[in-house]
Amino acid sequence: MADRKKRPADKVNLARKFELFEEYWKPKIVGEVNDFHVKIVKVRGEFVWHRHEKEDELFLVTKGRLIVRLRERDVALGEGEFFVVPHGVEHKPVAEHEAHVVLLEPKSAVNTGDAAGARTAAAEWI
Amino acid sequence: MADRKKRPADKVNLARKFELFEEYWKPKIVGEVNDFHVKIVKVRGEFVWHRHEKEDELFLVTKGRLIVRLRERDVALGEGEFFVVPHGVEHKPVAEHEAHVVLLEPKSAVNTGDAAGARTAAAEWI
């Protein structure tokens, strides 16, 4: 059922949104599709190993290269490539140089999953 | 709760997936994220006016230009731009020349929404 009629938001230009911030590993929300958020994040260096109990997580690279490390293999993503980490699967994103990544995941997802700590960051709209 | 441990699928190169088919307005599934599908579609010409009762729908252009017509305005999308049509909002996608579009929507979404007919097509994995 349509719970309410929502006004369409504006269109989003991904490259321009990435110009609005500098910091790494702090996802920003740029869109919502039902109970999902579209987020963007700049990455460089290594993130922490973690997993999401319920949420699958899509990583789409729009600039640079990202390695999604899994326990049994590495998945190397270039521009225009995406990978979905299923819920429950441990992963560690790594980027040698700055990369721009679009994330797609349920709104309930927290960036560090089961590994809450210094890297945990609440995403805000940008 | 993690209902089961799912094996990660392979990574997806969007440009290569678009090389696998020619026809317009027939979305193909290229990924799943919980109860959402990631689809790709080649478009050219005009689609039908329709709306989705429950599903928001994200259109991300990766090649060419797409106009998402709404009753009160047109939204013109170029490469690297996306727009979310909220559920309940009538829309009609139009492209003068061939364009490549990534769709993100709940698995329950049907391409023609409330306007089932000749253009209705069940999406299949590619």
Explained architecture:
2 copies of one chain form a homodimer. With 126 residues, chain A is mainly beta. Chain A has a domain of 87 residues: Jelly Rolls. Chain A is 4% helix and 46% strand. The first copy, chain A, contains 1 helix and 9 strands, in the order βαββββββββ. In chain A, strands 2, 3, 4, 5, 6, 7, 8 and 9 form an 8-stranded mixed sheet that branches. Chain A is globular. The model of chain A has no long low-confidence stretch (mean pLDDT 93). At the A-B interface, β1, β2, β4, β6 and β7 of A face β1, β2, β4, β6 and β7 of B. β1 of chain A pairs antiparallel with β7 of chain B, so a sheet runs across the interface.
Can you summarize this structure?
By secondary structure, chain A is mostly beta strands.
On the 0 to 100 scale, the average pLDDT of chain A is: 93
CATH topology of the domain at 20-106 in chain A: Jelly Rolls
Just give the CATH class of the domain at 20-106 in chain A: Mainly Beta
Low-confidence stretches of chain A: none
Instruction: Tell me the CATH superfamily of the domain at 20-106 in chain A.
Output: Jelly Rolls
What's the layout of helices and strands?
2 copies of one chain form a homodimer.
Chain A: E1 12-13, H1 14-18, E2 28-33, E3 36-46, E4 57-63, E5 66-70, E6 74-77, E7 81-85, E8 91-106, E9 124-125
Parallel strand pairs in A: 2-9
Antiparallel strand pairs in A: 2-3, 3-8, 4-7, 4-8, 5-6, 5-8
